[in-house]
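Example 3.2
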Amino acid sequence: MNHWDEKFKDETYLYGEEANQFVKEQFEKGHGSIACLAEGEGRNAVYLAGLGYDVTAYDYAEEGLKKTKRLADKHHVEVNTRLADLTIENAVEEGAYDYAVMIFGHVEEKSQPTLFKNLIHAVKPGGKIYFEVYSKAQLDYGTGGPKKYEMLYDLEDVKNYCETNDVDTIELIEKEVERHEGDKHNGKCRVIQGIVEKK
């Protein structure tokens, strides 16, 4: 059992049951397929399924995926789940989705390029990718996210991860926002938000 399985074993939804605010701002009722990477306990996947999308949640933690299914049942929606190590190349079927979403998917710096490659390659040409992650400046805020500097993101690195995977950047910005998501994300924080389109 990995670290995330241990964390997610608790019945409580550590990051709450509500979708991330950035996700809520970007999506409205619609259709099409969405891959949610590093989806944890399923809050964003369930929300998107409720809007009418065909959603598949990918995560490394089986316990997180079980909670995703429970949350989907609670809201009477269907979410597909896939157990996957997203730090390994080709962990997600290439070009299978219309959209990809990753919210607070944090891995060691050495694995970040592969994670972003999986995220971007999940969508078809013309597909859009949305992400929000904590920047390295988040350590000074202490309101959520990894406590290790190497597991946070640098804006220039993220730009590079995107550029090396053949996308058009619609928006890529580092900014201060307020997040209240369960017990783990509370208060002002520093994030990197991106919207890119696969060429």
